[in-house]
Amino acid sequence: MKRIFLWMILFVIFLGNAYGVEGTKKFPTKPIKVIVPSAAGGTNDQVVRMVAPVLSKYLGVPVIIENIPGAGGVIAYSKFAKEKADGYSLLSFNFISPVVFEVIRKTDYVTKDYSIVAGWNVKNFILAVHMEGPKTFPEFVELARQKSLSVAVTGGSTDIQMYAMEDALDIKLKGIRYRSGNECVVAVAGKHVDAVMTFGVQLLPLIRAGKIRPLAVFSATPDPFLQGVPTVRELGYGTIPCLPVVNGFAAPPRTPQKIITFLEGTIKKVITDPQSQSISEKLAVGVKFYPKEEVNKLITDYYGIVNKYKQLITE
Question: Would you say residue 236 has pLDDT above 90?
Answer without folding.
Answer: yes
